[in-house]
Amino acid sequence: MRVLGSIAAAIAVLATAGAAAAGPPQTGQSDASFAASFAAKSVRNVSATSQRVSCYRPELAVEWRLGPEQGYLDGGLTPCPGATTGEDLGPYPTQDAAGAANGVFRAKDFSESDIRVDPTNALHLIGQSKWAIDAEGYNHQLGFYESFDGGLTWPVQGHVPGYEGWADVTDPVGAFDPWGNFYSLVLPYQFYYDKFGSKKYDNGSNQTNPTVPAEAVAVAVHPAGSHSARAWISTRGGHLDYLMTAKTANANVPDKQWITADTNPGSSHYGRVYAMWTLFVLNPSVIFESHADARPDGTHSDWSAPQILPTTSGKRWDTYLLPHVAPDGTVWTTTTFNPQQQGFSHADVNLVWSKDGGATWQGPLPVVAGVSVPTYANTTFREGIVNTFAVGKVKVRGAYPLYVSYEDGSSGVSNVYLTASYDQGATWTPPLLVNDNAAPVDELQPNLDAAPNGTVSVAFYDRRLPCPAPGDADFAGSGVAFDPGTAALPGHPFGAANYCVNAAVQFYRADLTPIGKNVRLSAHTWDPQLSAYHPSCFCSSGTFIGDYFGVESAGGFTYTTSVSTFNATGENPFFHQQQVVARVATP
Fold first, then answer.
1. Which 3 state secondary structure label does DSSP give 8?
2. Angle (CA) 390 112 327, round 5°
3. Do residues 175 and 261 touch, judged by C-beta distance below 8 A?
4. Are 120 and 139 in contact (CB under 8 A)?
């Protein structure tokens, strides 16, 4: 169903009122107060990915190395010193002869992340991340790390097996089904390097590995009760568990996949798993959904035929699908209309939904229009997914609330905003400014969660605290002495403002009443330029810390998993991108 004409116009006015509204209801917070909030709120940090040595055999083993003078103390490929994860080191069934002949290398950098809590056991957590053997070459598989004690330790981790025959596997996102089986929706794709080190996708049928499709959307399942890095189900009926495949990697290719599962006992589609992704058809994009019914043993029914989701009439530039299931079984997702005009600089967020288990879809309804997609000052990492979405688990005014947060750069820096709907998307509250920094700096990459008790959390990367300077307690551990600076801010960034990063969170009641002020989630301010991924070419200045990071609340705690390059206790001596899991009590 498409809502047209005057009704849509009226709704749009309500949806976009105050799209870049000023001022959070809570007052501004001093930098000293924000810095002290980590200890004041008893936040706990654990470096998850530094606890084990993970290795795998890549399909493509071409080294691109930058040196210490460029912020890479341990660049390029590192032969495996001895894996401690128990994962399979190959060769793998999906590899061709060339891939099978490659060496085994250590995964060293872990960028972009997701975290989920098992609905059957709130102490059981699984995080996922890009699992890179060569950050400069953006050469990575998808990896996971698993905790059974509420995030204190992460004894099971490694690359997600089954798709090693592709040059890269990407976009960490997963969901637990009602029985504790973990579904990872993966995006394996092929590329090659040109002589300059640029990644290329235009080799048609002459792929790096011609024995597998150029690109795919597929699933791997980590069964409930597993305690092994090898315990994944990636095949079904004797074949890889594909939802969609592509013949080439530079046209008609899937990307930006997301997944959720219905874990609500009262739902008529209890156990259904919903997968969504974008198909980029040359320039325009088409958005798809497919679903299957999970089974207690970790298997599932056939995936439904992919169906196209509704978009604004006559426009196909939608992406960033973020599905969630309400307690009544309604499946909701936002879509982000981000057209090529003006360099993808503006975005509209819309809403679509299904009340019959994905059989039919309704919408779109507008949420917010004219978001100014930000770019970040001083550093070289790109912006991430501009918006995030969550569905409340406790009714407000007779309906399950819908929440959208987004970053907006219209003020000259990136700020984070939050809006809500309490009438199933018909109207939206005026956006609230989430970040409470005193001086204007970039606040970025928000991610939303709604806890079982109704508390809403907006987690985001925060740049209000200056980089450590000589004499500071965190100076040596930060590695800023190895950062040569950027074109925008040349020289070592000692004490630099709007450059180094912390993770932060703001809590709200279900009605968006703020609960206190922004809380610092990082024990240490970290430098995003160190060991940074180069997604297009090691020769380019553009870098990457991820398009998003994970947050989820359960068992009275809110967990995030986010990047840090800090070396706190000697666990990260070369300042690699590690995944640090933060835990804070959910108010």
1. helix
2. 20
3. yes
4. no
3-class DSSP state of 457: strand
Q: Give the C-alpha distances (Å, rounded to integers) separating 266 from 5, 180, 325.
A: 36, 18, 12
Name the β-bridge partners of 460.
504
For residue 515, what pLDDT band results from cuts at 50, 70 and 90? Answer: very high
- What CA–CA distance (Å, rounded) separates 26 from 513? 9
- Residue 321 corresponds to which tokens in the numbers above? 């699908």
The token pair that represents 337 in the structure block: 């209309």
Integer Rg of the chain from CA? 22
For tokens 């011609």, the residue is 210
State yes or no: pLDDT of 23 exceeds 70: no
Show Cβ contacts of residue 484 under 8 Å, excluding neighbours closer than 6 positions: 69, 70, 71, 490, 491, 492
Q: Which two tokens stand for residue 515?
A: 């609960």
Cα angle, residue 208 at apex, residues 203 and 213 outer, rounded to 5°: 85
**CA 178 to chain centroid:** 22
Q: Is the pLDDT confidence value at 60 over 90?
A: yes
Backbone angles phi, psi at 365, to 5 degrees: -110, 145
Closest CA to 412 of 2, 20, 19: 20
Peptide bond into 161 cis (omega under 30): no
What is d(CA 70, CA 397) in angstroms, rounded to the nearest whole number?
A: 55
- Give me the DSSP letters along 84-95: SS----S--TT-
Q: Which candidate, 151, 53, 40, places its Cα nearest to that of 523?
A: 40
Residue recorded with tokens 């986010």: 562
Question: Are the beta carbons of 126 and 542 closer than 8 angstroms?
Answer: no
Q: Please tell me whether residue 34 adopts helix, strand or coil conformation.
A: helix
pLDDT at residue 12 above 50?
no
**What phi and psi values does residue 144 have, to the nearest 5 degrees?**
-140, 160
For residue 65, count CB atoms less than 10 angstroms from its CB and return exposed for 0-12, middle for 13-18, buried for 19 or more: middle
pLDDT in tens, 163-202: 999 999 999 999 999 999 999 999 999 999 999 999 999 8
- 163 burial class (0-12, 13-18, 19+ CB within 10 angstroms)? buried
Q: Report how far apart, in Å, the C-alpha atoms of 469 and of each of 291, 491, 492, 526, 552 are.
A: 51, 13, 10, 12, 34
Q: Per the confidence metrics, is the pTM higher than 0.85?
A: yes
